[in-house]
Every structure is written in C-alpha cells, then in structure tokens.
Design goal:
The chain is built from nine helices and 14 strands. By secondary structure, it is α/β, with parallel strands linked by helices. The chain has a seven-stranded mixed sheet, with helices on both faces. A hairpin with a 4-residue loop joins strand 6 and strand 7. Helix 1 crosses helix 6 and helix 7 runs parallel beside helix 9. The protein is globular, with a radius of gyration of 21 Å. The structure holds pyridoxal-5'-phosphate. The site of pyridoxal-5'-phosphate (PLP) has 12 residues, from helix 3.
Length: 357
Amino acid sequence: MSRIFNFSPGPAKLPRPVLEQAQAELLDWNGTGVSILETSHRALQFEALGHELTHNLRRIANIPSDYKILWMQGGGRGQFSMIPMNLLGEKKSADYVINGLWSHLAADEARKYCHVNPVVQARDIVPDLSMWACDENAAYLHYTDNETVDGLEFSFVPDITTDVPLVADMTSNFLSKPIDMTQFSLIHAAAQKNFGPSGVTLVIVHESLLDRALPMTPSFCHYKTFSELNSFYQTPPTMSWYIVNLVLKWIEAQGGLERLAEKNQEKADLLYQTIDESDFYRNHIAPEHRSRMNIVFRLTNNALEACFLEEAQEANFIGLKGHKSVGGIRASMYNAMPISEVQALCEFMKHFEAKHG
Ligand SMILES: *Cc1c(COP(=O)(O)O)cnc(C)c1O
C-alpha cells in the first residue's frame, strides 16, 4: 500500500510504533493468552494498566498530587454538560470565553444548567485579557485553549486574579506542550485528537472542586464517583485506555512534552511560512493567535479549493477539508505527525500553485 498522509482533525493519526505494538500483541496481551479486547476490566492485569495509565500521565504532564486524574466517556461534548453539573454547586452562573465553534457549543450546552455570562465574544482572534468582562461570582470560567475548527490557539494562560476556578478545554492540544497545572482548576480533553483513539475523555480536576455537583448529576457523569473509584465506576473503554497508555510511553520516548512542543512549533512554522510566502494561499489569522495544531487556510481563488482537495486526495493527502461551518482547507498536525509529512504537504502545495497559479 502506498503511503497516506493523514491530516485528519480527529480521530487522527496515531504514532506508528503504537499501532505496531498494538498489532503485535492484539491476540495475546501481556502474556495472558487473550486479547486486550477480551480482557475483563476487573482482571488484575487490567487494573494494573489503569494505575499505570494514571501514573504515567501524572509524571509526563507533571500533575501535582492534589489534582485527580479521571478517565471518563462522552467525549468533549460530554464535558460541556458535565462541567456545569459538577461545578455549579450553589452558584447560578458561569463565565464563558467564546471565540470559535467549540467554545460557542460549550456555552450553549451550559445554558441548560445556568446563566452563561459571555465574558468576551470574538471571531478569528484569541481575545486579549483586557477585553474580558469576568464575573467574580461565577461558578467557574471556561475557555477553549485550541479552537480546532477556527485555527486559533491561546499562547498564554489567562491570569484572571480572582478565586473563580479556571477550566480549559484542551481537547485538541493537550500533551502538545508542557503545562503548569497549578494555573488551572480543571482541564478536559477527549483523547481522539492528540493522544489516543476515541472513547476516552480525560478530566484533571483539583480535589477541592469535587463536592459541588448538582444532586441530579448521573453517577457516570460524577467526578467524585470517578475519583473515588480511580475511574473504575463502569466498564471503561479498555482498548482506548490501553492505546492511550502506549501513546504516553511513546511521548516519553520522544523526549517528553518540551521536545514535542519544539517539534510542533517547527512543523507549524514550516506550513505557515509556505502559506505566507505565497499570494496563492492565505491565512487570515494574526501570527500570535494561530494554532500550531490545526492550520486553516484558503486559496485566494476560492473556486480552486475543490480542485485542490481532489488533487491532494490523489496524491494521498487526506483529511484536509475545512470544517463545514467555515469551509476552506485545514491541516491538522498533532504530535504523531512527523515533520517529513508536513514538508511533503508544503511541496504538494508549491506544485499545485505552479500548475494552477
Ligand atoms: C473535537 C472537540 C470537541 C468535541 O469532542 P467530541 O469528543 O466529539 O465530543 C470539543 N472541544 C474541542 C476543542 C474539540 O476539538
């Protein structure tokens, strides 16, 4: 089979060595004689995997011991409901920064549970803190660190100087760079963009926030339940946990988050440079607001975009179509994307321009 360049936004490319190891041990996991797919989540070996998974994440992402690591289901969207259910407590309102599709949808879902204060509403930018109108009585403040559809990414952690818990959706950039967890009260991320397959959603939450759930919160959505049972409340997505654990080991073998952040920057710089150098392609976002993970661009002649996607597909570049709400082209380049494949995309873009420009 010829090589495929997978720029899909998610579920997205996984590291090759992870897939190879999963393939090699698919029929006989860990010497048990059965597949991981057939193993009970109550088997000692699987319980050990659960502990290792949490332990590995805590080490790699440097998560202090007063934060709980929860492996849940329901994806990013599930968290849009679980966050208000778990964090509202006695409060009646929550703050939302709205600057792209996902932050918009997060706020829409929260409106079912409380008053949503749109701290700032913006498009095509990461709004500067000076534009934010925060409410110091809000139950929490939610923002989206990387807007996957719009191609925007925060280059700073909002320092809001109140006691309002800071909550970040890092679904599409968690583990792409080092973080200082102490700046956050909660980070949530569905795995299928940057660190695993679909089916598992990570929540890292400060232990002081575990007693604020609304009484109606279903147990399978309840952070405290998951915390007390080390995420063994219901049958976990066992295969997804296993793959995420392999990805964590791969991250460590790559030199950890500092090194991955350098590589991700290098890849993004290369593609943005190719776009900016040409009048044929354009990206309308100011350099300091641009995402390193999801690079959106247009062809100056919009009519050529369908042709671009078609020829890209013929040349084995897949997943490049922009989200239906914005159109255009989007190249998603998560941790598992090697720079050589970004170089190949840039070469393809130059050839396409020479042919059609
Ligand atoms: C993809 C995405 C989501 C939604 O994730 P699902 O698992 O499909 O519910 C939420 N937030 C961000 C930032 C995303 O990129």
